[in-house]
Amino acid sequence: MGGRFDAKSANATDSETTTTAATRETVAEDGDGANEAVRRVAEDHVRAMEALKDGGVGGRGTRKSREAASTRRDFRARDARCVVLAGGADETNPLTRGRARSAVHLGGAYRVIDFPLTNLINSGMRQVYVLTQYNSHSLVTHVNRAFPMEMFGNNNEGFVEVLPTSQTREHGETWSMGSADCVARHLTHGSLTKHSFDMRLEDECLQRHGSLEACAANQTDGITIVLAAEQLYTMDFNKLLEAHLKSEADVTVATCDQVTAENASRLGIMDVDEHTSSILSFIEKPSADQLLEFMQCSTENELLECKLNANMGVYVFNNSALEELLRDSKNPAEERHEFGRDIIPHAVNAGYDVRSYKHSGYWKPLRTLADIYEANISVATGGDAASLIDFDRLVYTKPNFLPPNTFYGSSLTERSIISDGCVIRDGAKIINSIVGPCTVIDKNVDLEGVVVVGRDEILKRSGGDKVADIGANTIIRKCMVDSDAVIGANVRILNEAGIQELDRTEDGYIISEGIVTILGGAVIPDGFTI
Question: Do β-strands 501-504 and 18-19 pair in parallel, antiparallel, or remain unpaired?
Fold first, then answer.
């Protein structure tokens, strides 16, 4: 679904601002906006220009981004530039030794990045850039196959473009140092330049507005949506854009209040005015004491009663504000330049109009092995994450063209997902688990709380379905089995001692956060016990 928005503002004095409500109109499925309403805005333009001459935008005429926002009129979802940050390093997670965190498998058939990209495409966004850096090969291959330009039609109607990081003379022999630095480098190089199909034709504009002056007045200060790739949620970005345009904010931050004080130390927490949605202050990854002081709570029990507004890592910027913030928020004493730590706090402290957009649905950032494991199990067992895979919407991923599953004899499966191309033999018991594509489960295998990544292609399996990926009579509990791993017969992976951390890479496994991970490509011999 696409979206087109109209927002008008006319500021009569420094102390009075008149804002009309943003109007959202129906568009075609491809976000093209076929049934656009024709709106004359010459009078509004004159009033807005007079207001600017009389004193700027609501007394804030000294900031260029607010001046640009004052002339905003028309905007379509497909005009938004979307930047997906998918390059974060995560060397402590055994699943990301050979892949980016956003390329980790979820729900059997999907990768994590499929869900934020699906949100954008289903919302009518048509300019999507995926910025990569760390262990990017698997991610690049997947995105290119899952989101080809042909899915948008044959007339340059949209794209998902993967942009790798780069080194330049200007930045020395370093890769991108932080999310904000990555975006700044790509803007400097021109790799985030809008494509020609998004520019309005002059004759179309003249027909709608009557004069070139009115056309110029109605050109929007462009909008950039920046979001992290390693997060799971379902969002209609049309509503986020509509809220941003209606409020005439410089920056809008998507927030979620369904977080606990325990999790707050890994997130950015904001103080939000409940009446205006203005973000008043911001603290990044606070300690327990810092959080008590920030929320003005005297005890931990009092803190439990407070709603914590967490930064989701989803931002909407007016382009003029983004360019200013990227330039002005860098701390010379810090090597890295981040959106959460630097850009947003600077915008709040410098007096930019920063608003909150509250997201009320499921949201889970994936930062640890436990996060990934729990999200997978939640999808399989019908937990909160199961809302990600809904029959009411499309979820895009790479097509694998696999044969159907084959079940031999009698097997028991409860609250589990069995992906395409699998073979399940007699006596297998699979509970609260995910079995990834092209996996062969031999006789009397017992899995509970297990996520088997499987294989992307059936041709990778040596010996076809005659050779089992998990051998007969094997019992596994609370385990991640990475891609292309082979586990022999009569193996016991139970971690009965409750070990939390153990690195046995030489034996093909790691225990992290109490979860056993069989490493990608490992071969666990018959009779092995963990």
Answer: unpaired
Residue 438 tokens read as: 């092209």
What are residue 412's DSSP bridge partners? 429
Round to whole Å and give the CA distance between 396 and 389. Answer: 10
Neighbouring CB atoms inside 10 A of 321's CB total: 27
Both tokens of 334, joined, read 């810090």
CB 512 within 8 A of CB 501: yes
Give the integer Cα–Cα distance in Å for 463 and 224. 50
Q: Closest Cα partner for 322 from 220, 252, 219, 240?
A: 252
Tell me phi and psi for residue 223, to 5 degrees.
Answer: -125, 135
Helices (H) and strands (E) in the chain, counts: 13, 33
- pTM for this structure? 0.81
Residue with tokens 């005890």: 299
Write the DSSP assignment of 401-463 as a string of letters: -PPPPEE-S--EEES-EE-TT-EE-TT-EEES-EE-TT-EE-TT-EEEEEEE---S-GGGSTT
What residue ranges define each of the domains in the chain, with the CATH number in brackets?
Answer: 4-75 (no CATH), 77-373 (3.90.550.10), 400-524 (2.160.10.10)
Q: Strand order in 423-424's β-sheet?
A: 406-407, 423-424, 440-441
DSSP annotation of 229 reads S
State how far the Cα of 17 lies from the Cα of 169, in Å rounded to an integer: 47
d(C-alpha 74, C-alpha 52), whole Å: 19
Structure-token match 């019992």, residue found: 475
What is the residue-level pLDDT of the chain in tens, covering all 530 positions?
Answer: 444 344 433 333 333 333 333 333 333 344 443 333 323 333 433 333 343 333 333 333 334 444 444 444 467 788 889 999 997 667 778 998 888 899 999 999 999 999 999 999 999 999 999 999 888 888 999 999 999 988 887 666 789 999 988 766 666 667 778 888 889 888 888 888 755 444 444 566 677 767 766 666 656 678 999 999 999 999 999 999 999 999 999 999 999 988 877 777 778 888 888 889 999 888 878 877 777 767 766 566 666 667 788 899 999 999 999 999 999 988 888 888 889 889 999 999 999 999 999 998 999 999 899 999 999 999 999 999 999 998 888 999 998 888 899 999 999 999 999 999 999 999 999 999 999 999 999 999 999 999 999 987 655 555 556 789 999 999 999 999 999 999 999 999 999 999 999 999 999 999 999 999 999 999 999 999 99
